[in-house]
């Protein structure tokens, strides 16, 4: 019988980097602070510019291994009347946390995402999102994020901690829907050969 695995650990423990984890190092080719990061896929719910109902988030590189973005909430994002749905807020935080991986030039997917909802968020608010990597251990990338109402210094509404796991490009070609994978390879022929993202000025 096998013993407990990392996946069996309580959420808090799973999001705590092991003692041998390392400080994240900004990749030398990471986009300069202030650069807008392009979408990795134009139909992505979080960042895809062609997604009809997506969040259309545009992340911006910060100093270090970090990004920021703004989410303009709308009526479509309601859960309770006039208030943002928690799942929408978690999606937005997942998107910016995922964008942080670009600063490491790592292709990674969310393994665990833990959110704390501290304040209700009105749907006419602009949420200022920020995310940064805190540690890296082998394929594991540990990150944290915040969402503040109205300004980068505004009231803290939601925070999140997350674990991403680096994956090979085969993760997408093996598990993704064939027609969508074919479309992205047709539109972005270099994406699988080189890297999973481009930087658009
Ligand atoms: C051609 C098309 C191009 C497309 C270009 C796209 C480009 C880039 C797209 C990015 C997209 C972003 C979009 C937003 C972010 C999402 O939304 S991602 C979507 C949601 N997430 C998913 O679908 C992931 C689903 N899960 C999985 O596929 C698998 O579980 C994973 C995450 C790949 C891991 O599986 P695995 O490789 O078998 O992992 P495994 O070896 O068991 O564990 C890896 C490590 O994690 C540790 N671990 C595992 N679970 C845990 C846990 N719960 N706690 C602590 N540690 C754990 C293990 O101990 C192990 O550690 P090491 O031994 O390496 O130190």
Query: How many domains, in number, for the residues?
Result: 1
Assembly classification: single chain
Architecture (CATH level 2) name: Roll
Helix % is: 10-25%
State the main characteristics.
201 residues, six-stranded antiparallel sheet, Thiol Ester Dehydrase, Chain A, alpha+beta, 4 helices, binds Palmitoyl-CoA, disordered C terminus, single chain, 26% strand
Task: Describe the protein.
With 201 residues, this protein is α+β, with helices and mostly antiparallel strands. It has a single domain, classed as Hotdog Thioesterase (Thiol Ester Dehydrase, Chain A, Roll), CATH 3.10.129.10. The chain is built from 4 helices and 6 strands; from the N terminus they run αββαββββαα. It has a 6-stranded antiparallel sheet, covered by helices on one side. The longest helix has 19 residues. It is globular and about 40 Å long. 32% of the residues are buried. The C terminus is likely disordered. Palmitoyl-CoA binds next to α2, β3, β6, α3 and α4. It is a peripheral membrane protein. It is found in: Cell projection, Ruffle membrane; Cytoplasm; Membrane. GO terms for molecular function: hydrolase activity.
Could you outline the blueprint of secondary structure elements for this entry?
Layout: H1 11-14, E1 60-61, E2 66-72, H2 86-104, E3 108-117, E4 126-137, E5 140-149, E6 156-166, H3 170-175, H4 178-187
Antiparallel strand pairs: 1-2, 2-4, 3-6, 4-5, 5-6
The structure holds Palmitoyl-CoA.
Residues 6-7, 9, 14, 40-41, 46, 94-95, 98, 107, 109-112, 137-140, 163, 165, 167, 169, 172-173, 181, 184-185, 191-192, 196 line the site of Palmitoyl-CoA (PKZ).
